[in-house]
Amino acid sequence: MTAEQTIVTPLDPAGDDPFGWLEEVEGVDALAWVRARNDEAHASVGSDPVFAKIEAQILEVLDSDDRVPEVSRLGEHLYNFWRDADHERGIWRRTTPESYRTDDPEWEILLDLDALAAEEGESWVWHGASVLRPEPGEPWRKVLVDLSPGGSDADVTREFDLVEKAFVSPADGGFTRAVEQGGAKGALSWCGPDAVYVFTDFGPGSLTPSGYPRIVKLWRRGTPFEDATVVYEGTAEDMYISARRIHTPGFERDLVSRSIAFYKSETYVATDPGTPEQTLTKLDIPDSAEAGFHREWLLVELRDEWTVGERTYAAGSLLATDADRFLAGARDLTVLFEPTPKTSLAGATWTRNHLVLNVFEDVKNRLHVLTPPASASGEWVRSEFPETDPVAAVGTRAVDAVESDEVWVVTSGYLTPTTYGLTTIGAETVEPLKSAPAWFDTDGLRAEQRFATSADGTRIPYFIVGSEAALDGSGGPAPTLLYGYGGFEVPMTPGYSAGVGRAWLNEGGVYAVANIRGGGEYGPAWHQAALKENRHRAYEDFAAVARHLAETGVTNASHLGIQGGSNGGLLTGNMLTLYPELFGAVVIQVPLLDMKRYSHLLAGASWMAEYGDPDVPEEWEYIRTFSPYHLLDGSKTYPPVLLTTSTKDDRVHPGHARKMAALLAATGKDVTYYENIEGGHGGAANNAQSAHLSAFAWTFLRERLGLG
């Protein structure tokens, strides 16, 4: 923008975008603008003495050796990825189950990312590892390690040898993906000890409009990458194509997944993949359903109603059937779970012989065990899972779903530190293995669930944490932070946060989390109620919770702040532009904000099932009602805003946050902007960056809402 230009708001989406140049992620002018804004943020919010204190408090937690090391069991070892003050990028390490039970486990380092980054001159960020199950009697050895340059979604894959504790070079036949290109969206997945499925950027025309792989190939060890055989090729309009093998001995299956849109996909069972005899059999289930195989069983989780013969199965149900019989044409389906107005399926975890159901009941976890029959005609048997904390969020993972009935159990509550436990199906208790320390004082604090009423009469649950006086309204309006997301069927559940406790609760603040529509708290229907033309319901729900906090005396508008990231950034952006009178401060992180352009920026096209297509005039008519970049009116009064993003975010384009900050500044509003140069969609690439970013939010909120 030049000095002669005048910004007229609301912006005309059909006109020239005065800040379109900020979409050039690595542009010289754009980065100069970013650095200038970062300097301003450090000179204002960052110069507050409390900033350094909060940053140090949070970094102490993130780097602490007292954190619970979450592990996965592979053979005789437990594996963990760990960052601390001495390992900024992190280490991949392992120990034995016996050593893990001690207060000071002995860890064997397998891969040091800091050393690798120094050696190669690249800011590697860990994206995970996929380990191939060996043949009986053979050691666990073959690994595909994913590393991201700077934290972007685009990454590289390298084969790693667990015995030699070293990468396998391409010269020695090691599998490697996209090193020369600096990374690509996609992956390698094992198809046997000497073959992988590869779905990545194969060159022009090989990616979908969302920037994801459109083609999957089978690549055999010892052959050139260019000679990999096409297994499946999607259309130019698809979202993502991938493939994987289920390696359970005796129940091996090769599956190809075609994601057509975010909630629409097809699954194919492949035989003789990558050969002239290859066949693909489409799984005959609704495109909106999710399928999962375990041994002889096929599970189908429904997002929409499904009529099979004369029976209709409810949306949100979980069905089971014998996989081979289903593929042969039989349709004898067993209902394992059916939702009620208060319950939904939060997850399902297979062990070797059992299925653990995790059910939400008014957003509180309840666990049950189902045991399949010995034959397809038998009955599933229900039994009880060992009792867990009734007010904390509870998650389960199988220790080894191929060979064991053991289950990891992780619990975490707003005032209860995370506990890592182990149980075996049939046991009466969960053995606590590790528990995180209490990082903040909970004396006088309580957490509870409340309900607000939205504009259309729907009851909206929310969690609230604070002092007794603040929660009963007797302490006067307290500085309060309300957090939300409300999209993509993602539920907001309780969880222990040392940052919230140290920087906010222990200073007298109140923290609340809204379970608005668009999320997954009550299953698919709760999510679908706020899609596309009904997006306004999510914002009405959030506004209802904000009003309820004021009406019950917890806070008032000048002391109420809000925070959200990604889709939650779109939420808080809309609360800023649609309900500015309700809030005293707004934190918007890695957001979508320009909903006219979102589908043309990075992965944005993949989200049109959630928001709609802005290039279709009829759909733009409702999308424009929740496009904050086009709703901002310079003549109106808005609360102070903090906008943050990452240059390396290749999922949600940093241009959204940049342009909104520039528009707010150009219209004379109170806006603070900070952009981390690394970090990807998570905003930070290491603990120090995470602590620095968090300190901006907490310091900004304290200043604007009068905390302390």
What would you say this structure looks like, in words?
This protein is an alpha+beta fold. The chain folds into 5 domains: 30-59 and 439-705, Rossmann fold; 67-121, no CATH class; 123-282, Prolyl oligopeptidase, N-terminal domain (Methylamine Dehydrogenase, Chain H, 7 Propeller); 288-338, no CATH class; 340-436. The protein is built from 15 helices and 39 strands. An 8-stranded mixed β-sheet has the order 32-33-35-34-36-37-38-39, sandwiched between helices. Strands 5, 6, 7, 8 and 9 form a 5-stranded antiparallel β-sheet that branches. A 4-stranded antiparallel β-sheet has the order 1-2-3-4. This is S9 family peptidase.
Task: Give me the secondary-structure topology.
Layout (H helix, E strand, L loop, with lengths): L27 H16 L5 H15 L8 E3 L2 E8 L2 E9 L1 H4 L7 E5 H8 L3 E8 L10 E8 L6 E6 L4 E2 L8 E2 L9 E4 L4 E5 L15 E6 L8 E5 L6 E7 L6 E9 L2 E8 L7 E4 L7 E5 L2 E5 L4 E3 L2 E3 L4 E5 H5 L6 E4 L5 E8 L4 E7 L2 E8 L9 E4 L8 E6 L7 E7 L6 E6 L6 E5 L9 E9 L5 E9 H4 L8 E4 L14 H6 L6 E5 L9 H5 L7 H16 L8 E6 L1 H12 L6 E5 L18 H4 L5 H7 L4 H4 L9 E6 L8 H12 L4 E6 L10 H19 L3
How would a crystallographer describe the biggest sheet? 8 strands, mixed
CATH architecture assignment name of the largest domain? 3-Layer(aba) Sandwich
On the 0 to 100 scale, the average pLDDT is: 95
Alpha-beta classification: alpha+beta
User: Total strand count, please?
Assistant: 39
Query: Low-confidence segments, ≥5 residues, pLDDT <50?
Result: none
**Number of discrete domains:** 5
Number of helices: 15
Return the CATH class of the largest domain: Alpha Beta
Q: What is the CA-atom radius of gyration, in angstroms? A: 26 Å
Shape from CA axes?
A: globular
Domain Peptidase S9A N-terminal: 16-420
Protein name: S9 family peptidase
GO biological process, one term: proteolysis
Keywords: Hydrolase, Protease, Serine protease
